User: Fold this.
Amino acid sequence: MSCNPLLLNFSLFLTRQAISPLTNLGPLPRITLVIATGNPGKFNEIAELLHGLGVLLLPLDRVGPIEVPPESGDSFQENARRKAEAVAQASGQLALADDSGLEVDALGGQPGIRSARFGGPQATDADRNRLVLEMLRGIPPERRTARFRCVVAIADPRGSIRLAEGICEGRIALAPRGTRGFGYDPIFEIPSLGKTFAEVQPEVKNRLSHRAKAMAAARVILQGILEGRA
Ligand code: ITT
Assistant:
């Protein structure tokens, strides 16, 4: 039995728009986006920052084993682009990758693009925080300026790539404080709040952070894709 493609398209359109009478669930998301990160802290923040956009988010481990290339580029842009492209190619889906890190002025911008590997492959977040504090020993608060930088890449399996960037200025605390967040959050202080990112509620970090700024621009890009403009 053949099916009229116009009817099929129309019923798909209805399925996507309507509330399901069977389950009472709302409209189906119109696009699927693979979040190309192995870092659960990042995934949770990205999911929160894309809330309400109507996009189905797939964690990397739900699209099968995909080899993400090593971060061997010499910029956040390059690394984000490589991760997103590799995942879009391997999954056949739109993919979003985030490459981010901490730049400490008194350390000449370190750890920078090596943020995830700072202190060696076995180092934990706590080890990396201790290392940064150790390297800044004796440096007064006014010279402990730093920023988080985040570059988000959105790759289409057909090869198009879009980038967005966000920066959050702050300074390195004298000791770790707080238990929320991940990575360098316990030592990254927002001067206007007098608190580290690990001391504030997730909503506050998601309003001020480098990732929040990059994802605000990424939302506009995704909105364009949803509306067929990009
Ligand atoms: P993926 O590459 O799988 O996404 P990753 O942790 O290796 O995960 P990056 O290479 O981008 O990610 O490294 C970024 C590192 O910078 C991350 O491991 C943290 O240590 C730190 N970082 C980035 N954003 C942060 C944030 O919002 N709060 C605290 N630390 C952050």
User: Anything to note?
Assistant: Residues 157 and 207 are 31 Å apart (CA to CA). The chain has one domain: 27-226.
